[in-house]
Amino acid sequence: MSVPFCPGYNQEPFKSLAENYPAAELYPPKDFRIEWGPLFHRGRLDGTARLLAIGQDPAQHEAVARRILVGTAGKRAQGFVKRLGLTRSYVMINTYLYSVYGQTGGNAHIGDAGITAYRNQWIKAILDENPVEAVVGFGGLADKAWKAWLASPAAAGRPAMPYVHLMHPTWPESSSQSAAQHGAAIKKLLTNWNGGLNQLAPAIHHPDVQVPLALYGKKFTDADLPDIPPEDMPAGLPEWMRRDEGWADRKGRTAKEKRRTIVIVAPASEIPA
Length: 273
Ligand code: URA
Fold this sequence. Notes:
With 273 residues, this protein is α/β, with parallel strands linked by helices. It has one domain: 3-Layer(aba) Sandwich (Uracil-DNA Glycosylase, subunit E), CATH 3.40.470.10. Helix content is 34%, strand content 10%. The protein has ten helices and seven strands. The strands form two sheets. The chain has a five-stranded mixed β-sheet with strand order 1-3-2-4-5, with helices on both faces. The chain has a two-stranded antiparallel sheet with strand order 6-7. The protein is globular. The two termini are 24 Å apart. The structure holds uracil. Uracil binds next to loops. Uracil (URA) binds next to loops.
């Protein structure tokens, strides 16, 4: 059995970016879970990425897998790029390197010059090294991150890049209090994403597979939530971490204990009877 894996950050300019990441001096530990380390990216850094997707911040699954957008949000994002015919030629980064702690940290730090400057180094490196044809920002903070890049000196003089700002993949969960609200929110998200697909599909000239554009229905189907490709993950990551959702949870009797604890549960089906 041969299982491909993500080689990580062994090539410049990504090597230096991964070696010189910001920590508490830019990301205040009261607002970011810096104790779980920085999470940089997922996808291609090798000159083959055609789409750049920007998310918000990593959560517990990402802290374990050491790649971003691998939990519920990640599987939804994977289904989105699949509809554009992209099965591997994409790269994803987050607005923030660390998981936001609390309700206010995300908005409070979106204008921070140091955080923005480091993120812009990543965007520059990705655009310099890959033939990116379009960009998608998932959520309001990602949109601000992309606009901060466009306003930076390093973006000046580059050809305009097709860009869409879409709702964040887990906005339905964060905005709903009931099952009915959740269903309506998913529908709203998918309508929004369909608009994004219509805009992005003509901009992706080199998909991995030629697929006629098919829009989402009113809810996610299983086919809309593909496994995360092994090629996106560090070597040796268990297969179920790419396939399943909800295998990691923050647990604790106090806020401090919960912040310190991630519980990982392997599926029962993986264990011999
Ligand atoms: N996980 C990520 O890495 N980014 C998001 O925006 C959400 C979940």
